[in-house]
Amino acid sequence: MILSRVIHHVKNQQWTAVFLDFVIVVAGVFIGVQLGNWNEARVERVAAAKFHERLLADMQTEAVNYEYLEAYYRAVKDAAETTYRSLDGDIDLSDAQLLVNAFRASQYNWMERHRATFDELVASGNLDLIADTRLRTSVAGYYGATFLEEIAQDSKHSEYRAAFRKIVPPDLQLALTEQCGDKQVEGAWTGTFTLDYPCKLDWPEEAVASAASALRSDDALVPLLRLRIANLASMNFTMESNYFAFDLGSFKPNDTDK
After folding, report:
1. What's the DSSP call for residue 131?
2. Residue 65 pLDDT > 60
3. Which among 94, 131, 165, 190 counts the fewest CB atoms within 10 Å?
4. Cα–Cα distance between 158 and 165 in angstroms, integer?
5. pTM for this one?
6. What is the pLDDT of residue 205?
C-alpha cells in the first residue's frame, strides 16, 4: 500500500508527499527494530532471572550436602584414629567397639552433584546471562573442580579398606553395614549419609571376638591405618580449604528461608 502511494506521488511529482512517505517508512522500520530489540532484551532478562534463581537453588543444595560430606569424613577419621590408638595399645576397646571403629574407618562416601543448571548454561553458551561476575566465577570454579570425585575414589580404593575386608568375614561385614554403617540424614537430600551416631553391634560374641583378634594380630594393619589417617587428614584439609575458596557458606539458606 505504501509502495503504490509512493509511485502515485512520484508520477504526480508530489515531492513533499514522497518525502513524507519516506519518513513514514523509515520511522516504521525504526520502531519495528526497537520493538524487536526491546522484546529480545525482555526475554533475555526473564531467562537470566530464571537461570540465576535455579543456579542459586542448586548451589544451596550443594553447600548443605557438602557440609554433611565434610562431617562424614571427619567421623571416618575419628574412627580411624580410635582404631589406631587401640591397636597401638594406647586405649582399650571392647571387641565390638574395635570392630565398629575399624569398619567405619574403612568407609567412603560420595556426593551427588546438582549441576544441571550450570551445565545447561555452558552447553547453550549462556553463562554470561549470570551478570554477577563473582557468582559466575565461583560457580564455574566449583563445578570445574574434581576433588570431590577424587576423594571418593581414593577412599574407596584405600589399602586399609581392602585389608579390613580381607580379614573380617562377609556376614559380619554385612552386620556392621546394616547396624553401624551409613545412615540417611533425616530431612536431607536422599543419599546424604552420616556415621556420627551411636550403635551397638548385635552379633554372636564368639564371632566378634574372633574377628577382633584377627585385626589385632595383623601386623600390616597398623601401618595401613597410619596411611589411612594421613590421607583422611589431607582429604579433610582439601574439603575445608575449598569450602572457603568457593565461598560455599554464602549459598547456605538462612533459617528464615526454610
Report:
1. -
2. yes
3. 190
4. 11
5. 0.81
6. 96
Alpha-carbon distance of 101 to 64, in angstroms, equals 26
Q: Which residue has the cell 563473582?
A: 134
Report residue 147 as a C-alpha cell.
576433588
Burial of 14 (0-12, 13-18, 19+ CB in 10 A): middle
Mean pLDDT of 248-252: 89
Q: Contact, 161 vs 106, CB < 8 A?
A: yes
The closest of 114, 58, 63, 104 to 81, measured between CA atoms, is: 104
CA 17/CA 124 separation, integer angstroms: 49
Lowest-pLDDT range, 48-52, 101-105, 154-158? 48-52
Judged on CB neighbours under 10 Å (0-12, 13-18, 19+), 146 is exposed
Contact status, residue 168 vs residue 104, Cβ threshold 8 Å: no
How far apart are the two ends of the chain, measured CA to CA in Å?
61
How, if at all, do strands 183-184 and 193-194 pair?
Answer: antiparallel
Question: d(Cα 130, Cα 63) in Å, to the nearest integer?
Answer: 19
